[in-house]
Design goal:
alpha/beta, Phosphorylase Kinase, domain 1, Rossmann fold, Dimethylsulfoxide Reductase, domain 2, seven-stranded mixed beta sheet, six-stranded mixed β-barrel, 30% helix, globular, binds iron/sulfur cluster
Length: 736
């Protein structure tokens, strides 16, 4: 039961936002009693309009999966055994407490996996665990994903969370770089049903250009596909920006640093064709952007997970600035969301306040790059990590040099995981706290809410009641109390802790400059929903948010309104709001920050690689390192196949379907080859997230080569330390 007192009504049809990926589709859930029969897309949803993919359709299998962990587990004699919640919390208190006593807090670390951001309870709860471990170290899947975007935004806008998205409903020229939204339906851009929106764009005379080494599903339906060399988008974008400036384009928005940027770009202009495109092709792309009335440029993991991820992300927004597209209808705009977090003192805007112990990687927004985690565990000395908490993450498969990470996890003195599966990572854990089925918890997308193609307010109450266990928010509070107090917390202690969190959040709202400024905290506390639960924090943030009722101070919505609107509340198209998101003190966009200017010099000095380069790819039936075991997602051909251009294969005597060895500076894997004749000939493509575990109990779909094993841990974005999981130099040879 959600704390709003919303009890599932046991009717045959309910609704639940899918928590699996960034498309955030609303699903219609069909039930018989408490048995989930099926899920389909909710055609009436105001945001996702009925879109659904195979993963959303497979959610009932996830709910019923016998392999899903349903009780806390503690490792005894090398095996995980089910225990009570109090026993699990006591083991956590003793285990992490012991590490702290022996080595201090600096020996403790948290790793937050990607599913955390799709779960409001975990999102809120992990921060309480991080505080309890403070000043331990914090790592997340962000540094194998989008952290370069955050850093680029911080350097440009002074706000790492200000990430613009294309206004796909109004643009007439969409440029997609290193992304595959036909399959992903957006990433750092929530755009369910991308294919339909693209069709509408084309129907109104618009066009799409895709820049990608691979002839991806999105490239296949583009008006123009530019097959660049992997990891070289920074050269292309530098060339584009230089042309736009030469042709007289200047920022129309308040901005500084254009001269610094112009001078720096001039130093790499002669090397722009390292991207694999001719100067004439780059000219034509600049012409196309200048001719468009409302262009929008968007980049994703093909641009962020490279050695110049931050610079590339920065230059993408430079193009949007120079074409006059940033913060303009039809261009790239900053979405809003219903919930606003309690105001903080700009903690998100930090870079390089401290560095990692072993390699000196800088922190970005309080976190260190996970590419350095294994060596922080394995390298002896003060600050060596000895205790780790993983939350909904599988770093043993997801991080670069995965073999090294798996080895390092085995060397920890104590490890706790919160997860729904026993997997390559959690098998190392001394204690595992079980996550819930998505149908047993409520849902609000705190992170994705600010990335929508359109503004909207959506919330899902639980589809089914949760019995005999805490929800994930309370589970995390329980972990935080166990760490803080050195023992399990009693239920009333957890209630009091939750009250503390709510009171602190109210204090920040009334002390901030939002709609609740100066209000009576006690009055607000009383007005927030019923007795307990994370929904109190959500209700607070919604009512303090852009469309909230301000607790009676204006017309607006509450969480109750969202809960009783199962198809969401549309808040209209994106709107210009630059002044609200730029945190630079002068209010201007900074186009010439030192870090970027210096990184352009690093780009100038960068050599090129003539051999094969490995990139990843996305498959609609997979989701990073999990869900492989669901039967509905295992149907069809094997996923972990190496795509290779026929020209590169012929040069190596490799035939279609042959088994080959793929070798990098980090590892070697065996893979089956699928030949093709499109895209960059020296690019090979292998998905990540699979495992070659020899354990025969693992389903076949789950086994296969993992591209992350091939990524050297020091192959990183030079600014953010984010793993460069793309453009890995490899060689492919015939086996035998
Ligand atoms: S695209 Fe699929 S996995 Fe992603 S939210 Fe929609 S249904 Fe879920």
């Amino acid at each position: 039961m959600g704390s709003l007192g919303i009890v599932p009504d046991m009717s045959e049809r309910r609704f639940r936002i899918c928590p699996i990926c960034e498309a955030a589709c609303n699903l219609e859930v069909k039930l018989e009693g408490e048995h989930i029969i099926a899920t389909t897309g909710d055609a009436a949803d105001t945001f996702s309009g009925g879109h659904v993919c195979p993963k959303g359709l497979a959610l009932p299998e996830l709910h019923d999966d016998p392999a899903r962990i349903r009780a806390p587990l503690v490792k005894r004699g090398g095996a995980h055994v089910a225990v009570s919640w109090d026993e699990a919390y006591a083991a956590i208190a003793a285990g992490l407490g012991g590490v702290r006593e022996r080595h201090g807090n600096a020996a403790l670390a948290v790793y937050m996996g990607n599913p955390t951001v799709h779960n409001f309870g975990l999102t809120l709860g992990f921060s309480e665990v991080v505080k309890a471990l403070s000043p331990g170290q914090f790592y997340s899947a962000g540094s194998i994903d989008q952290l370069p975007k955050n850093l680029a935004s911080m350097l440009m806008f002074g706000n790492g969370n200000a990430v613009p998205v294309p206004d796909i409903e109004r643009t007439d020229c969409l440029v997609v770089i290193g992304a595959n939204p036909i399959v992903s339906n957006g990433s750092l851009w929530v755009v369910p049903g991308f294919r339909r929106k693209l069709a509408a764009l084309k129907a109104r005379g618009g066009q799409m250009v895709v820049v990608d080494p691979r002839r991806s599903e999105t490239a296949g339906v583009a008006d123009l596909h530019l097959a660049v060399r992997p990891g070289t988008d920074a050269w292309l974008l530098a060339g584009l920006c230089a042309r736009l400036i030469e042709r007289g384009r200047r920022p129309e928005l308040p901005a500084r640093g254009i001269e610094l940027l112009t001078d720096a770009l001039a130093t790499v202009r002669s090397a722009e064709t390292r991207c694999g495109l001719s100067a004439g092709t780059i000219d034509a792309l600049a012409d196309r952007l200048m001719a468009a009335r409302r262009p929008a440029v968007y980049g994703r993991v093909g641009t962020t997970l490279t050695r110049f991820g931050t610079l590339t992300s920065f230059l993408i927004e430079c193009v949007n600035v120079l074409t006059g597209s940033l913060d303009r209808a039809g261009g790239a705009l900053f979405p809003e969301q219903a919930y606003v977090a309690p105001p903080r003192r700009r903690v998100a805007q930090t870079f390089g306040r401290f560095t990692s112990r072993v390699r000196g990687y800088p922190e970005v927004m309080g976190e260190l790059p996970v590419a350095g985690l294994a060596e922080e565990i394995e390298t002896e000395g003060t600050g060596q990590i000895r205790g780790l908490v993983t939350i909904a993450g599988n770093p043993a498969v997801s991080t670069p040099d995965s073999d090294g990470m798996a080895r390092a996890l085995g060397q920890l003195e104590f490890m706790v995981s919160a997860d729904i599966y026993l997997n390559e990572t959690t098998r190392h854990a001394d204690v595992i706290l079980p996550g819930t089925s998505p149908f047993n918890d409520s849902h609000y997308d705190q992170f994705l809410g600010s990335m929508g193609y359109r503004n909207n307010a959506r919330y899902s109450p639980p589809v089914l009641p949760l019995r005999d266990r805490p929800d994930e928010w309370r589970m995390m509070l329980g972990m935080a109390v166990a760490i803080r107090e050195g023992r399990p917390g009693a239920p009333e202690e957890l209630d009091a802790f939750e009250d503390e969190v709510v009171v602190a959040a109210i204090a920040r709202h009334v002390g901030g400059d939002g709609v609740l400024r100066g209000r009576d905290p006690h009055e607000i506390f009383q007005a927030i929903g019923p007795a307990c639960g994370m929904e109190r924090l959500l209700d607070l943030g919604v009512r303090a948010g852009p469309w909230g009722d301000g607790f009676g101070s204006r017309e607006g919505i509450t969480l109750e309104d969202m809960a009783t609107s199962p198809h969401g509340i549309d808040q209209g198209p994106l709107r210009p709001r630059l002044a609200e998101v730029v945190f630079n003190e002068d209010g201007e966009i900074n186009l010439g920050p030192d870090a970027i200017i210096q990184d352009i010099e690093r780009l100038r000095q960068e050599g090129t690689s003539d051999g094969l380069l490995l990139i990843g790819r996305r498959n609609i039936q997979t989701n990073n390192s999990w869900l492989h075991n669901l039967p509905a997602l295992g149907a069809g051909p094997r996923r972990a196949i190496l795509e290779m251009h026929v020209a590169a294969a012929n040069a190596r005597g490799i035939a279609d379907g042959e088994e080959v060895c793929v070798a990098s500076g980090a590892a070697e894997v065996r893979a089956t080859v699928r030949l093709h004749a499109e895209g960059d000939p020296d690019t090979v493509v292998l998905p990540h997230g699979f495992s070659e575990l020899s354990d025969a109990s693992q389903p076949e779909q789950r086994r296969g080569p993992n591209s992350n094993r091939l990524a050297p841990a020091d192959h990183i974005d030079g600014l953010s330390g984010t793993a460069a999981l793309n453009a890995i130099p490899v060689e492919v040879t015939r086996l035998g």
